[in-house]
Amino acid sequence: MPTPDSAPRATPAAFIRAILGAYERQGRDPALALARAQIDPASLALPGAGVTAAQLELMAGRAMRELDDEALGWFSRRLPWGSYGLLARGSLTAPDLHTAMRRWFRHHGLLTDDVALSIEVEGEVARVRLRESGRINGDEDMREFCPVTLLRNAIGYSCWLADSRIALTEAWFPFPEPDHAGAYGLLFGCPVRFGAGDAGVAFDARYLALPVRRDEAAMREMLRNALPLIVLRYRRDRLLLRRAQALLATKPDLLANAEALAGALNLSVRSLHRQLAREGTTLQALKDEARKAEAIRLLDRSHRPVKQIAALTGFANEKSFARAFRGWTGVTPAAWRAGNRS
């Protein structure tokens, strides 16, 4: 069985140092928490030091219980163990993710007014913003750890509610770029900028329409082991099909390039194939669907020669295009065009 420290050490050691700062402010000894997470405290000061996701999960979980503070000293008052469970229950009955997130953010303001969370929708983009209205406690490690963890908490819980990964398109933070900025790509899976006016993340607003899929039984089970929602990114993406279809429809050049399509979705090619399989389809099926739609559009709305349409839709020659088109529609491209223009 793998141990907590046997996985890649991609999580910044600064996050563990921030938790140690919470122990120090309460005058408590973190030795048991460090031992349980198999973390050598001397290693945390080494250049480029990091820990595994499992080590952060174990350390944070132990600290929250021992210090009876789920905020780990971020705010002007403690958030006793169970505070975030209350937030979760308050949004469980929401009909959709948008309503659930607004409730979660509003109720968070009842726990503390040191930070304010909000959600904004502008066109096709949704943005979750975190603004400091008081002062986050601690040194620069804590001032980094707090917004990073709060945003991952909010997004992780939202993913769980909708049973879907929320693919972020951007994240931003008010602090200067840290030495371990390279880890943020793994933490958020999107481009990240630093030195902003506040902290936040952006994503496709269509996720907000996803229904809440969890019930009280699922809530009780989740609360027994909630930290992975913060530490690990959710895998399943219920909008993946629609996002991939939209990209293929608007950017036909992606039809012949799986790497470019996967990159546009912030996924590896392997992950793209795996997630599509979970949704009961394949990349080839999506490509065929997009090629068919584009071919029909060009046949109906343009006077381009069939040979040119074949090339534009990613086929090597007119013959292979005609064979595929007959399979899709039962007629040749020429017959389709003639029938629709007669």
Question: Could you explain how this protein is built, in words?
Answer:
This protein is α+β, with helices and mostly antiparallel strands and 342 residues long. It folds into 2 domains: 75-231, no CATH class; 240-341, Homeodomain-like (Arc Repressor Mutant, subunit A, Orthogonal Bundle). It has 16 helices and 7 strands. It has a 5-stranded mixed β-sheet with strand order 3-4-7-5-6. Helix 4 runs antiparallel to helix 5 (97-111) and helix 5 packs antiparallel against helix 6 (140-162). The chain is elongated and about 80 Å long. The protein starts with 10 loop residues before the first strand and ends with a helix.
Give the secondary structure arrangement, pairings included.
Layout: E1 11-12, H1 13-26, H2 31-36, E2 50-51, H3 53-67, H4 83-91, H5 97-111, E3 115-122, E4 125-132, H6 140-162, E5 168-172, H7 184-188, E6 192-193, E7 199-204, H8 216-223, H9 228-231, H10 240-250, H11 258-264, H12 269-278, H13 283-301, H14 306-312, H15 318-329, H16 333-341
Helix pairs in contact: 1-3, 1-6, 4-5, 5-6, 10-13, 13-16, 14-15
